[in-house]
Design goal:
Blueprint (H helix, E strand, L loop, with lengths): L13 H12 L11 E8 L5 H10 L2 H4 L7 E9 L3 E4 L6 H9 L10 H14 L4 E6 L6 H13 L4 E6 L3 H13 L3 E5 L4 H26 L4 H12 L1
Parallel strand pairs: 1-2, 1-4, 4-5, 5-6
Antiparallel strand pairs: 2-3
Helix pairs in contact: 1-6, 5-6, 6-7, 8-9
Length: about 240
């Protein structure tokens, strides 16, 4: 379990992190590909997130439908739960296959395993380029410096992390924001009343993975401010 006295603003590796960020910012933006976009969709499936898992199952289909005109999308579903349990699905190319996977999962109590999520994204993009990592979670119980180091490595590979934080737990909030910054991704906090916004944001990330920055900007033109805010985060990072 992470040391509660850790302070994200007081890390011995600050200089290293800043160097990572400087290099990441010099990298070219993700461009559309003639192949399907590839996106890892990772979720905390510990007991505290059971109600949110059910909501996510209901809205994930939009991630596919909004990318059809851009060549489609492949998604790998990852989750952790219980005692040291981590699972990654094959690459899926249909909403029904993803939904079937998600609805077969039950949440179980346990500590967070965000390190495994980041390592999975790093390993997968080294095999074949992925365009984005989506992570949905509510808390963080691991070493901050270690997670930031892995996030920096993912950023160097050109994979932005879009982190959707349920609630406002301070340690998780600080860590998730830093992880998003290091990968040139984006952070968004939501609650049980944010289902519509979360649907739009997940669809926006899917559009980004399938079609790149331009497709995301076009998608945001007729969406709410929350999607435009996500686009601005990408442009600023």
């Amino acid at each position: 379990m992470a040391n509660s006295d850790k302070n994200i603003t007081r890390t011995s590796g600050k200089a290293t992190i800043d160097a990572f960020v400087k290099q990441v910012r010099s990298m070219p933006a993700t461009k559309p590909s003639t192949e399907r976009g590839r996106l890892i969709f990772a979720m905390d499936a510990t007991a505290s997130r059971e109600p949110s898992w059910d909501r996510a199952c209901k809205i994930q289909g939009d991630m596919f439908s909004t990318t059809a005109a851009l060549g489609g999308l492949e998604i790998q579903l990852c989750y952790y739960r219980g005692y040291d349990e981590f699972d990654a699905s094959p690459w899926l190319s249909s909403a029904s296959a993803l939904l079937q996977r998600m609805t077969s999962v039950s949440c179980r109590g346990g500590y967070t395993q965000i390190e495994k999520v980041l390592r999975q994204a790093i390993e997968q993009t080294k095999q074949k380029k992925i365009q984005a990592l989506v992570f949905v979670g509510d808390c963080m119980e691991e070493d901050v410096d270690h997670l930031c180091h892995l996030a920096g490595e993912l950023g160097m590979l050109g994979v932005p992390a879009f982190i959707f934080h349920e609630g406002d737990e301070p340690m998780a909030q600080n860590t998730f924001k830093e992880m998003a910054r290091l990968t040139r991704g984006a952070y968004y906090s939501f609650d049980s009343n944010s289902a519509a916004q979360l649907r739009d944001l997940l669809s926006a990330v899917a559009v980004y993975a399938a079609g790149g920055h331009k497709a995301l900007r076009d998608f945001g033109k007729d969406r709410g401010e929350v999607v435009r805010r996500l686009t601005r985060q990408l442009d600023e990072n």
